[in-house]
Inverse folding.
């Protein structure tokens, strides 16, 4: 069964707007929640990550919000730019183990 | 500081042949993970290795697939008797030793396997 559920499947946002991608997980033993950005033909690039003892983490235009009680976390991309157009994956892992990925969100930022 | 290296970047094999995919982790990293991405799909875990040890192979198909990470040299993912359904992008990720307290996994550029 899919342990990490991601939505929406795709997203179109205007330049300067906010992109929001949501993920929900089932396994309360997960202790690491990263987000990856992937361009066509490239490998996933680590964007930002959070541990469950923190409710929010911000790096530049990217922010993770984490809700432990709801078992949900989200990625906010502020001031979205055309160069942010990519596929974004959330993931979760336990004890340095395998990453379990969401299905991905294709983000298109229009000029 | 070189990142994770994978070769070849593209590999074409006929049905029934063997495919060998190589991964060199980032300098100082001693843990390697292999993931597979089927066309238009997400990333699926295959196997997690340390030097000379398989830690978790719960995502590996039971037949035809094997992986190793020898004391010297790159990690190898080996697919015997390839079939068309093996066509995918195979990604390797590496992470530092556990005593460094880092959870990050850094991905390589992938090997795109096409089975004809």
């Amino acid at each position: 069964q899919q342990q990490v559920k991601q939505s929406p499947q795709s997203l179109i946002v205007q330049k300067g707007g906010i992109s929001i991608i949501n993920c929900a997980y089932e396994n309360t033993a997960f202790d690491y929640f990263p987000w990856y950005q992937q361009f066509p033909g490239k490998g996933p690039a680590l964007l930002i990550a959070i541990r469950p003892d923190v409710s929010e983490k911000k790096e530049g235009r990217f922010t993770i919000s984490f809700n432990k009680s709801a078992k949900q976390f989200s990625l906010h991309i502020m001031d979205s730019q055309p160069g942010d157009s990519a596929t974004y994956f959330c993931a979760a892992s336990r004890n340095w183990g395998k990453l379990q990925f969401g299905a991905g969100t294709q983000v298109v930022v229009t000029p | 500081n070189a990142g994770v290296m994978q070769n070849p970047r593209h590999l074409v094999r006929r049905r029934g042949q063997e495919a060998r995919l190589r991964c060199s982790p980032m300098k100082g990293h001693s843990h390697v993970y292999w993931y597979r991405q089927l066309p238009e799909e997400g990333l699926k875990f295959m196997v997690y290795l340390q030097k000379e040890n398989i830690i978790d192979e719960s995502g590996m198909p039971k037949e035809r697939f094997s992986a190793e990470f020898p004391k010297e040299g790159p990690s190898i993912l080996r697919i015997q008797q390839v079939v068309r359904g093996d066509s995918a992008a195979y990604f390797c990720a590496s992470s530092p030793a556990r005593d460094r307290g880092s959870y990050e996994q850094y991905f390589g550029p992938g090997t795109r396997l096409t089975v004809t």
Q: What stands out?
A: The two ends of chain B are 37 Å apart (CA to CA). Chain B has a mean pLDDT of 93. Residues 6 and 23 of chain B are 5 Å apart (CA to CA).
